[in-house]
Each structure stands twice: as C-alpha cells, then as structure tokens.
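Before going further, learn to read the protein records used in this course. Taken together, the tokens spell out the fold as the letters spell out the chain. A record is reproduced here so that you can trace the correspondence yourselves:

***
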Amino acid sequence: MNKSFRIRIILIGLLIGPVMLHSQDNVLENYIREGFQNNQALKQTQLNYNKSLEALKQSKALFYPNIGFNARYSVAEGGRTIDFPIGDLLNPVYSTLNQLTQSQQFPQVENEQIYFLRPTEQESMLYLYQPLFNSEIYFQYKIRKNLSDAAYIGIDLYKRELVKEIKTAYFNFQKTVKALELFEQTLEVVQENLRVSESLVINDKVTVDAVYRSRAELSKVERQLAEAEKFHESAKAYFNFLLNKPLESSIDLMLNNMLIDSLLSNQKESIRLALNNREELMQLERYLSASENAVRLTKYNHSPTLNLGVNYGIQGATYEINDQSDFLIASVVMQWKIFHGLETKSKIQQATIEQNILQEQNSALQNQISMQVIDAWYGEKAAAKAVTAARTQSYSATKAFEIIRKKYNQGQTSLLEFINVRTDMTNADLNMILAIYDYEISRAELERATGTYPLN
C-alpha cells in the first residue's frame, strides 16, 4: 500500500467519524466578520440607512424655530397715482383771507398727485417662525422614525443572508479542495495501475488491451481532475467576491473536528424561534407602524394648526434707525380646514387599505417563514442521514478496492473488475465529501431560516 493510498485511508477514517465543523476553529467566523466590513452590497444597505437618518433629522428640524433675515431695497417710477385736490380746496379760502388781511400771506396751492410707489424704499427685518401645534409635523416625524428603524433592520436582514451565503460558498470551496485531493490521489492510483498493467503484459499474465484500458482510465481521471480544478477556482473567486477581495486571494481552510449534532431537534421550537428572530417580520412591523401613523396623519390633518410669527426690522425711504423707522410685529396664526370636500375621507380610506394590505402581507410572511423552517429542518435531517449512509458506502468501497487491488496485482482478477471497484471507491469517497459539506450547508440554511446566528 503506497503513501498516497494510506493518506486516502486516513482521510476516510476522518470522514466516517461523527461529522460537524466545530466553532473552536474561528477561521470561518473571521471571514464572516470580514464580510460584514467589506461586502459592497452591505455597504450600500448601510448607506441607505444613513440616508434615512438624514431624512429623520430633517423631519425633526421642523419642530424647531425657523429664524432668518430678509432685506429689500426698491427703486420705483410711475405706477398708479391718487389725485388730491388740495389746491381746489384751499385756494378759495386763501383768497378770502388775503382780501380780509389786505396781504398775500396765503399763497395759492397746486393740486397734488401722489404715487402709490415711493421712488425709493427699503425694508430689512429679522423673522422668527415657530410651529406651536401642527399634527402633520408630528406624524410625519413618527413615520420617518418608523422608516428609519426599518432601514436599520434591513442591515441585519442583509447581514443574516450574507452569513448564509458566506458559509455556503466556504463549504462549497472546501468541497472542491477535498475533491482535488481525492482526484490527485486517484490519479496516483491509476498511474500505479498502468505501471502494474504494463508489468503484467511483459510477464504474459494479461493481454495488451489491459494497458490500453489503463491508459484510458488515466485520461478519464486527468479530465476529472481538470474539471475539479475549474470548480475549485470558480468557488474561490465567488467566495472572495462576497468578501470584496481580489478573486484569486488564497483561502484558509478550517480543520475538520467532526461531530454530527442536530442544530435544532424540535421542529415547533424552530418555527417559534424563526417567528421571533426573523428580521423580515421586524421590518414589516415597522412598516405597519408607519402605515398606522399615516392613517393618524390623514385623520388629524383637518385639525387646527397654531403658529407663532415675529418680525423685527426697519423700513423707510433710506436706511435709518430711529423711532420712526423700526417696527416689531408678533402674530399668533391659527389655520383650520373646516371642510375640504371628500378628499380627507378618501385619503383616510386609502391609508386604511394600505394598512390592511400590510397586515395581510404579515400573515403571509409568517406562513412563508414557517414553510422555510420546515423545509430547512427536514433538509438538515436528510443531510445528516446522507452522511451516515455515505460513510458506510465509502468504508465498504475502500475495503473492496483493497481486496481487488491485491488480486489484480497478482494477476488473479480482470482489469475490468479492478476498474469498476476503483470507480466505485472514487465515487463513494466523492459522495462522502459532498455529503459532509452539504450537511454543513443544510445547517447554514436552517440557521438562516430560524435567524439564530448571533449577528453581534
């Protein structure tokens, strides 16, 4: 038994033991943290949350006073006038007074024409505007708060999906690593078989067709090895893509310390955990709260609003500050929409319908999540049984190969039987590799379905 074959037996010995990648090896956990830091789609989700925070700040700013400064300087010519017949009114009186006093103390006065627009005018003032009671501002803020909370939950929602994707990609990569090792070891076996076949032909123990068959088997395994290398590079590139790293970056392998242990043994408990943990339901609850506040906003939109306005400044033909130029105006303004047609009633009905739609979506989402958990729960159980069956098959195929190989080397069995047993052993080993990592992937899917991975 050569060294490569002993390596195979050691590998199978590990595989046929109990199966699970223990958390004591933190390689995968480190990669998940790296994904949280670097994944581009996650960064976009976080930017969307930051954007919603800024919208919330804008909504909150409406509660505070609005203070500003306005200045205007105008030059006018022409425009409407008002005729003031002051001459027609005073001149007869002045003439009579001049006759009585025998003097010209009272001169004649011309009629006046007064322009509405002054030739020059300025107005400069500070203003303060403070909402005292406005239901629209209050409920708009509540809605923005609900949407901001939903955006924050969206970050955790994407993180949870990213964890599953990283784990799945990592275990698929490890599949390709083990498959490469298997086909490299198998290649050594068929190369050794070709050497033995050539020796048997020389010693007239088999015919020359055995050499041709051995060469054909060698070409077959070389093709399988090439395909395994292709899948290996693709799996590596996708895993690095999730971490936003150069696609050719090397990946550390996790040591196999294996123990089959059901993630969650109780199906009902799994569903209960999912309904408590899943971010989709939490996010939909925030949307429901936003919808409820939208209904309240529409209902209270016809209530009166109360605002305070204060203006202080100077005005006149020129810029002067004195008792005649400065002014102060303070106002409390109430606005009340008594009747606005049937628009308000229709808006309330529309908002209520949207709320009912979200409630129906919530019920449908709970059923959908329950179905996902059931599917993932049974998937994990089936994957665990597949590992048990695969390890038995691998062990039996290896033992059978050992026996047939000895017989073939002694010329006591046909090459066809040797090839069939070797193929069975390779397929059994490959099936064992796939079963182990498919089991780990099924655990990641159940973990995603129940929302039990600790994101923090």
Remarks:
- The radius of gyration is 44 Å.
- The mean pLDDT is 85.
